[in-house]
Amino acid sequence: MTVEQINSQGNLRHLITLADLERHQIERIIDRASSYLTPLGHPPPRDSILKGHTVANLFFEASTRTRASFELAAKRLSADVLNLDVNMSARTKGESLLDTIYTLQAMQVDIFVVRDASTGVPVRIAKHVAPHVSVLNAGESDVSHPTQGLLDLMTVQRHKGDVGKLCIAIVGDIKHSRVARSAFEAFTKFDVGEIRFVGPVELLPEDDMTGARSFTELDDGIRDADVVMSLRIQKERFGELGEIPDPQEYFRRYGLTEDRLRVAKPDAIVMHPGPMNRGVEIEGSLADGPRSVIQEQVTNGLAVRMSVLALVYEHISANRGSPR
Amino acid sequence: MTVEQINSQGNLRHLITLADLERHQIERIIDRASSYLTPLGHPPPRDSILKGHTVANLFFEASTRTRASFELAAKRLSADVLNLDVNMSARTKGESLLDTIYTLQAMQVDIFVVRDASTGVPVRIAKHVAPHVSVLNAGESDVSHPTQGLLDLMTVQRHKGDVGKLCIAIVGDIKHSRVARSAFEAFTKFDVGEIRFVGPVELLPEDDMTGARSFTELDDGIRDADVVMSLRIQKERFGELGEIPDPQEYFRRYGLTEDRLRVAKPDAIVMHPGPMNRGVEIEGSLADGPRSVIQEQVTNGLAVRMSVLALVYEHISANRGSPR
Amino acid sequence: MTVEQINSQGNLRHLITLADLERHQIERIIDRASSYLTPLGHPPPRDSILKGHTVANLFFEASTRTRASFELAAKRLSADVLNLDVNMSARTKGESLLDTIYTLQAMQVDIFVVRDASTGVPVRIAKHVAPHVSVLNAGESDVSHPTQGLLDLMTVQRHKGDVGKLCIAIVGDIKHSRVARSAFEAFTKFDVGEIRFVGPVELLPEDDMTGARSFTELDDGIRDADVVMSLRIQKERFGELGEIPDPQEYFRRYGLTEDRLRVAKPDAIVMHPGPMNRGVEIEGSLADGPRSVIQEQVTNGLAVRMSVLALVYEHISANRGSPR
Question: What is the DSSP letter of A267?
Fold first, then answer.
């Protein structure tokens, strides 16, 4: 990571990874996000802070949910929003990614929200934009999904307060999950009591997320947990898993159910980043039941995206017209 | 139909079918729609009633015209609009339809505009949304297209006044037409003088639309009619029609022309829901001529959609924050 | 061309080609465009002139950049914007183009921005719309791209002042380029000193652009030029070019580089309409270097589109409600 996410005034400029943010900077994002929550059913929060500014959603990887969340976040802050679903081949992208960015920047786009299936694109863009322009990572390969990590932290904090004594179990395909990685970064930043990764051995990460304990048995992994987060499993994985040839066997071994959750804390909450495979990684009734905070995650996610968009405004307005 | 479209205060909440609406409820929609008409060429009507509210256009079936009509209707009421063209396979949809809805609802979407090629999706959604949320049917299989039925009724009323003494002939593929069905429901609700279905025997409906008379000869069917509505015929049908192997023969038998319209009333108007196959179900010069009210249907359609969006606002604002 | 682009009051109504505009009319567009420039990094210009009006971007040919430019131009003028990416086959388009236009017009669309890969579509639409409605050409086959020609002229004027003594070299596939054609029309209108076309003989135009000199050697063509404009070459062309079988050979013969540019004027500027094939028609470091005005072209392009949209407003508002 060779791009400064925080500018010299201490304000957020880019959001590409949680790995090198300070705790107080994350707290600032979540505090602002909390100010953008209204009770469900009430009119959504609005702010005119981005009026006259332009946000480009540059999605190289298809997404309905995250794109909708960023689009509504920007519109509720009164920005002009440009949706660009760009289908570039890898080769084409190498050639023309920066030209696309320079072109949009010359159209006075102020904020790029970028999603891409490969690694390094958000950093590459951030290194080349004008001094006042911001880049927000909306999902990068299996490496980083920082607004997801923030919304997961925010959701846990709102239910459990300080995470310092909590045990958080993340169940499923940890190895290929940008969600798990960003959640890990967010929770460790706040000195979480314990993080556990639970899943088939083939899907546990190699030892780059230090401090987490790994489990291959669900019962062991979620025992006495305060928070159990289930991850989406891609159907393509089943070919690679020796003992788990199909979704049915996966559900038998790692599917979260009311019954299996009995070994967790009585007040354990259940999370999932969506979209869910019901009956594969999670039982439908559990997802819809009182322990589930899955819809709150979505609501908090929109608030986090509003917060980040609003916070980078301070950088943009202070650095307009700076020499390159 | 097991969803209440009208709430306990008597206000419109959902619009899924015209079949169980009362006449006065339809009148209320059309009255409000009339208030959203400006002379063609004048600036379009605007209203800020949905400012701060979010409308999601959830189209599982492609549509340019109806999507554009709902999108402009929502924007002219100052709503934030989210367009989602969702390409779900039938199996995927079964699994994830409600999760998509719950997710968008957690993003504080207030109104879902839904179009789908299969039957039952709008009702299924309406049964599961939060108490303040509305669902509007923008076209459902061959079953229902209520805003189309309303715009057809409105267009006839504006030209002919009370429909109680009118003879209305609907020509074409009645059997597979949600347009015909919703028009039938609208006109019968207002005690239309006579409704006739005209088309090849294979395309006439089985006897579930009681009160309508069926004709297989065009001249008999439109004789002395006040209103002649032509329907779009799908090219795929020709394989199924014994005596009509191609568009040319269909035009010879059922194509509306100035000449054949001479048996109708001298002041008969000509309607078509669009998009037209000119030279198949209708002669181009007739569609563009003085009898045609086809473009008025489009304008009235946008007004009807503004009306429905504005009317459900009353439900939304009165029921925000209700317990589920 | 049988459509009047200027109305009887002398105001711009349509913009389909630069060929029959007067010099003062072009000056008026560029003057207004200049008023829509703000320093890069500053908030973009805004104007509420199109508030309550509707602009439809009707793109029959895919485009990211031009669509984004027109979309932001319309939004920054406060218009409601409808994006329609229409994938019509040639046959379908023949049948239903005008019905699509009539339908959108009945929804009170005021301005159609049209892009199409075939010739004649913008004129055909302009001939059939209501008296107050405007049609803007956003790229038409290899024939016309008027806002591109205007932005090229504007960019040269801002760097070099009066074009009357300038030598402008356009390098590449002139024959198939709507960009070259519209630039030629713009510059000749302003009595440019000299226009040169430079490229392989197969890509030089037949003699319909009189006044331009043709060159097959790059050094000859750009010698002492004040402005060198490189055009995008489509990969498909290489099969048709006898002596130039591949991009490498093309770059060797016609690729613009710092080194080869030494024969041009010392203060020559370099232009490209984008998207660039770096390393094929232009060296990357030249495109990014101090001679390049490529990003200014993009910024000026957005200002030109705002200008044109704002100028046709005068026609629209003066002609609302006119009889057809």
Answer: T
B302 close to C (CB below 8 A):
yes
The residue in chain A having the minimum alpha-carbon distance to the alpha carbon of residue B321 is A41
pTM of the model: 0.96
A residues 163..192 contacting B (CB < 8 A): none
Residues of C in Cβ contact (< 8 Å) with A320: 41-43
Q: Under an 8 A CB cutoff, do B321 and A39 touch? A: yes
Q: Is the pLDDT of residue C249 over 90?
A: yes
- Residues C116-125: contacts with CB within 8 Å, 24+ apart? C116/C60, C116/C61, C116/C140, C116/C141, C117/C60, C117/C61, C117/C141, C118/C90, C119/C143, C121/C60, C121/C93, C121/C97, C122/C14, C122/C16, C123/C1, C123/C2, C123/C3, C123/C16, C124/C97, C124/C98, C125/C97, C125/C98, C125/C101
B220 membership: H or E segment, kind and range: helix B218-222
What 3-state class would DSSP assign to A2?
Answer: coil
Identity of the residue numbered B320: R
Structure tokens at A34: 């909390």
Residue that wins the pLDDT comparison between A2 and C75? C75
Asked if A84's CB is within 8 angstroms of C72's CB, the reply is no
Residue among B54, B100, B132 whose CB faces A72 most closely: B54
Residues 55-74 of C with CB under 8 A from A: 64-65, 68-69, 71-72
Domains parsed from chain A with CATH numbers: 23-145+299-319 (3.40.50.1370), 146-293 (3.40.50.1370)
Which carries the bigger pLDDT value, residue B204 or residue B62? B204
The per-residue pLDDT of chain C, averaged, comes to: 94
pLDDT value at residue C209: 82
